[in-house]
Amino acid sequence: MIHAPIGRRCGSAGENRAAQGAVKAPREGLWASAFLEIFYCHRLELGAFFAPMSDEASLLAANAAYYRAFVAADLDGMAAIWGDEEICCIHPGWPPIFGREQVLASFREILRNPMQDPVLRRSERALLSGSEGRIVCIEMVGQAALVATNSFRLVDGAWRLVHHQASPLMVQSEPPPTPQAPPTRSLH
Asked: What is the pTM of this model?
């Protein structure tokens, strides 16, 4: 079982960087995010009463922390989720950005933009393989839909973001139409 970091800060600075929440909770909606943040801040007092999260749930919680930091324009929360080395980010229409300092500088620029629409996630799908995990999801930025891939690496028991890439979604994926049966009688 893995414990996922939750992006909001509480307690001492050292505890904030290393602390991890451990609770099963719904992963959608603002109330679920608020619940995870409250639990994270009080995990030391309540931790013995809750089972650890599954690998998938902790990966999804780490992804939620990334988007929560985005919506809150929380650069500290954003910095807490990103890995320390070998990271890359590709914002829509931007060239690839490599390295922690450059990636965080790009987010600083985006988060300081007063015209920035909130970046909301939906349709998440987790893909796990050992100490590597990916989330593929749809980002809604205003009226625009983007498809995003967030790649995480397990570092000291916490999922850390090592790659983010988002690009415009031109066509919403829908299930293919059900084939129609051929007519049972001929008109000729």
From this structure: 0.67
